[in-house]
Amino acid sequence: MSVAIAGIGELPQGRSSAASPMALHQALIESALADAGLALADVDAILTVSPRADPYLIHAAALAEYLGASPAITWTLEAGGAAPAAMVEVGRGLIEGGRARTVLAVAADMPLGAVSRNAYIKTLADTGPIHPDYERPFAPTVPSMFALVARAHMDAFGTTREHFAAVALQDRRMAALHPNAHFSESLSIEQYLGGTAIADPLTLFDCAPVSDGGGAFVMTSLERAAGLPRAPARVLATGFATNHQHLSLAPSLVEFGAGRALDQALAAARLRRDALDVALVYDCFTIAMLVNLEDLGFIAKGQAGPAFVAGAFAAGSPLPVNTHGGLLSHGHPARAGGIGHLVEAVMQVRGEAGPRQVAGAGVAMAHGMGGVFATHGVVLLGAA
Amino acid sequence: MKHDAPRMNEAAPHWRAAKAGVLSLPRCARCARFAWPPRPVCGECGGAIEWVACRGTGKIVTYSVIRRAVDPALKGAVPYVVAIVELDEGGRLFTNIVDADPEALRAGLAVTCRFEPTLDPDAWVPVFSPC
User: Fold this and answer.
1) Interface test with chain B among A141, A153, A164, by most B beta carbons within 10 Å
2) Which among A17, A343, B35, B69 is least buried, having the fewest CB atoms inside 10 angstroms?
3) 3-state secondary structure of A207
4) Mean pLDDT for chain A?
5) Which residues of A102-118 are buried (b: 16+ CB within 10 A; e: fewer)?
6) Nearest Cα to Cα of residue A330 among A364, A360, A353, A351
7) CB-nearest partner of A147 from B64, B74, B107
8) Contact between chains at A253 and B72 (C-beta distance less than 8 A)
9) pLDDT tens sequence across B73-101
10) How would DSSP label each residue in A138-205?
């Protein structure tokens, strides 16, 4: 591939002071363009996800209108947490195909700021990963869908709450090192175990929070990026896989297709898994981290819990994961979930992650998934 | 719990049969594989699909006791149980487990089907309780 990410923008996740979701988008865009040393007038294509808090017929076109810009391409993508990877792939196609020179991608949402929290969560359950005919009549909540997987994983492999806790605690420790993290105060095992029950076996700290936030990035050709202010984050490859859409119809309840997405990316980049220096893994729930680590092929099926407890993915290990604190602590900005993983991957290969920096990080993997393990996207980034 | 209504599309026979007290599911007439949700032809062998009445016995594959409801209308319903049940005759259904002590549930528990109304007077849904 011959494209790179030349600029990124991110703001503190949590309760935003932005006047509106559009204003939040604008702030992120200004930050990313400034980072890239480019202007809005340079942008040929705008890609967004559709925020739960601010829907339009074509959100990206409404955003361009808000900004006073008129790029030829204004598209809004729908792929759950795999959308950032999809945005990279679409941007690559536009640049390599000669349709665009500068692609601006922004994923942001304001589930706290724009509507009341309970009203937002209710709308998420209405049109989120729950099938309107075959699942919704039985009133599942989003956490309960992941709890079904957690129960199956515990029954099949002996996974325990202590394994889940290790994920929550590590994400929180890493978030403490990130200035934009929604939750960075210390979290103890006692606090984890005392968390409110949500949907057995998952409790409060097994679940990502609801956060205002998001991120933006600017893509251009590698050649052009080399002349811009920041060290380019080379897009080495992307990879995708779709396993199912609705959990009750999935072939397995403990294994889903994330590894196929990574395999596709590694094959395109001509790399093996051991070339990865840092991994950003989609962790909307603690069980998601464990299952995705296994499905991505970083640990044998069923063994992610004990490996996590043993520090196999901690800072200083051969493959640190979620150095930004993950969705669980860095924050989960609703429909924009996953963009933080890509932004952190860029910072890692640039060498700009400060106290979170994985020494010598040359190759970073950002993974995102949509639905309940349904569809996956992976981006491999390389240092300049 | 008042069940939200499913839409009446290709699965309408399933919801209508539930109102009549019958668990009816689509099955391939050629290879006998269950096809849920309904498909025009069998995804495995291409055979024609027929609706068959099932005994309604099965086992819990996995379940979760919901302790916190997000829909204000369901706040009084917690704790309630969602589950995936595998029918003895084949096929899996997403459902509720009712008339059961949540603490006494486990994967593998034998359950049997009954039916409850939804907000659509023509559509009922199958739910399961321990045998």
Assistant:
1) A141
2) A17
3) strand
4) 95
5) bbbbbbbbbbbbbbeee
6) A353
7) B64
8) no
9) 888 899 999 999 999 998 899 999 999 99
10) G---HHHHHHHHHHHHHHHH---HHHHHHHHHHHHHHHTT-TT-S--S---HHHHHTSPEEETTEEGG
Whether the pLDDT of residue A121 is over 70: the answer is no
A116: Cβ contacts below 8 Å, ≥ 6 apart: none
Per-residue pLDDT, averaged over A263-292, amounts to 98
Burial of A194 (0-12, 13-18, 19+ CB in 10 A): exposed
pTM: 0.96
In this predicted complex, what is the ipTM? 0.97
Q: What percentage of chain A exceeds 90 in pLDDT?
A: 91
B94 in reach of chain A (CB within 8 A): yes
The whole-angstrom separation of Cα A198 and Cα A150 is: 13
SS3 state at A322? coil
Enumerate the residues of chain A whose CB falls inside 8 A of the CB of residue B71: 122, 125, 139
The secondary structure element, H or E, covering residue B57 is: strand B57-66
Torsion angle of the four alpha carbons A130, A132, A134, A136, in this order, in degrees rounded to the nearest 10: 60
Place of tokens 């092929």: A297
% helix, strand, coil for chain B, step of 5: 10, 45, 45
Is a pLDDT exceeding 90 seen at residue A117?
Answer: no
